[in-house]
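User: Can you write out an input/output pair for a complex, sequences first and structure second?

Assistant: Here is one pair. Inputs:
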Amino acid sequence: MSYRIDLTVLSEQKQFCRFGATLHNLSDQDLINWKLQFIIDRYILPDSFTNGDIEQIGSFCTVTPEVSTLKANQHYYCEFSINTAPLRYYTDGFKDALVLECDGEIKHPVVVTPIALASPYRERSELPEVEACQLALVPKPNKVDLQEGHYLLSPNSQITLQSIRAEKAATWLQVELESLYDFKTNPIGHSDMLFRDNPTLDEGEYILTVSGNGIRLEAGSAAGFVHASATLLQLVEVTEQSNTLKVPCIRIADRPRFRYRGMMLDCARHFHSVERVKRLINHLAHYKFNHFHWHLTDDEGWRIEIKAFPELTEIGARRGVDMELVPQFSTLNDVHEGYYSQDEIRQVISFAAERGITVIPEIDIPGHCRAALKALPHLLQDTQDQSQYRSIQHYNDNVLSPALEGTYQFLDTVLTEVAELFPSPWIHIGADEVPDGVWVNSPSCKVLMAQHGYHSSKDLQGHLLRHAEKHLQALGKRMVGWEEAQHGNKVSKDTVIYSWLSEEAALNCASQGFDVILQPAQYTYLDMTQDYSPDEPGVDWASTIPLESAYHYEPLKAIPDSDPIRKRILGIQCALWCEIITHQKRMDYMVFPRLTAMAEACWTDKSQRDWTDYLSRLKGHLPLLDRQSIKYRQPWKNK
Ligand code: TNX
C-alpha cells in the first residue's frame, strides 16, 4: 500500500458539515505535478476547499493541490464543507480515490479508509423473538381455511390444464418446483395439480384448494393462476423421500388489495445484467407483484439500444476516466458499462409476462439526461444557453432543451422505438428533478416562452411533456411520469402520476383528477439504510427504513373508505435506486426481506395485517430464501 486517504468529520450541524481529508504518500518516491481524484456523492462547496482547488462532476471530484510536490512519507491535507445533512454511514464516505501524475499518465491506486464519523456508534436494533410459523405465506392471503391432513405430491404427480389462460403459470410452477425443491412432475402421471378456469374470479383473484384428492388452482385471469402457483410454492414442504413433497390440506380464497403492485429497478446508475434483472423479476412473481418498472436511462448511463441512435449506447452506456462520461458512484479506474440490446429486452419482457408481470420502461426526460446529451450533442445541446444550474446529483449539463428541434427529433424517434418494443400500455417519461435556474438564459427558450405567453420553466417543461404525451397517445400508449410531470399544468389527466415525495402530494394529484401510484420515499425506497449502525449500506436522505417501518407503511390511513379519491390510487410501488448497488449481494441485502413487507402492503387487506404475525411467517419463510441463495439481511441477529 503506497497511498492512503483518510476522511474525518470535523464538525457537523443540521445542514452544514466540515471535513478534513489527509492523503498519505507512503511510497519512497515524491509525487510531482500530481492530482487527486475521489468519489463522494455530496456536493462540496468549492469556496470552502483549502490547500487546493476542486472540480466536481456529479460524484466525481478532481483536486489540484496548491503545492505541486508531495514528498515521500509526507501527507497532504485539505478541508472542505457541504451544506447538506451529516454523514451517518460508511457508504457516505469516499467510495474510491486515485492519484494522478504527469497529466494523468501515471495512476496510483489509493486505499480508502472508512470515514471517521462524528456520531457515536449506534447499535443495530433488534426484532422481537418469535416462533417460526408453519404456514409461512407472504404476502398473507386474504382468506385461509386450514384443514387436517396433507396431500403428497409424488413421482407420479402431473399438472393438468383446463384453462388456456393457465399455460404460462403452469410452466412457471413446473420450473420453480424443480429449481426450488428438485421436484419433477410426470408428463404421463396422475393428474393431481389441476388448473381450472373460474370466470367468477376477477383479475388477479384465485382459489387454491388442497384436499386428499389433489390440488386445484382456480382463476379467471392468467395473473390469478400465477398468484395461485406462488402460494402453492410457499405451501409445499419437503419430505425424506425423493421427488415427494407434502402440502397441507387447505382452502385459500385470495385477491389483491391494490391492482397495481410494482417495483422499480434503476439500471442506469449501475448496470445489472439480464440474468440479474430476471432473477429479481422472478422474485417479484413469488410475492405477487404485477409490474416491473425499468429505469433505463439517467445522467450516468443510457442502457437501452436505440437503433436510430447507436451513439446513445456507444457513448452513453460507458463511464471511465477518459470517456465522455466520467466515473461515478463506485470505482475510478475501471470502466463501468453495459446496455440491453432490443433482443435482450424482448427476452426480459416475455420472461416477465410468463410470470404475470408487465414491464414498464422509463426514459427519463427532460432532466437526468446527461448521458443522452453527451452522446448526441449535435441534436441535444443548446450551445447558446448560458443558464447556471446544478441538479440534485450535482450536474450543470443534464437537461434537454424544450426549444431545440433536435430534442423533439430525439424524443419522437426514441419513444417510437420504445413503444414498438414494449407491449406495456404505459410508458414512463420520468420528469423528475429538473433543477431551478434551467433555461432562463437560453435565447431560444426565451423566444418559445414569448410565443406561448409562458411565465416559468415549469411551463417549458409542461410544453415538452405535452408533446411527449401526444406522441405516445398517437402510438397507442398512455404516458406515466413522476410527480413533477404535472408541473406547468400542460399534460392531460390521462397521464398517471407516480408520487414519490409524500402522500399529501399524491392526494393532491388525485384530487386534481390524476390516477396515482404511491411510491413514498420514506417507506418504499430500498436504497435507504435499514438501521442506525454506521456499517449499514445505503443512504438516508428520506429516512432510515428498518423492516418494521417498511412493514408499517399503510397508505391512505387518514382517508375514509367511502372517499371517492381512493379510486384514483391505483397501487403501490417500491424502488431500488442503484447508486450504491454494485453487486448481487448488495442488491439482495437491500431488497430482502423488506420486499416481503412491501408485498404485504400491496396485497393484503388492512384488517389482515399484523406485525408480529408477519414476523413469525417471515421466520418460517426464510428457508425458502436460503434455497434460492438470496443473501438477505438477517432479520434476527443470531439466526
Ligand atoms: C431520488 S425519486 C431520485 C433518484 C435518486 C434517488 C436516490 C426520484 C424520482 N429521483 O434520481 O436515485 O432519489 O435515493
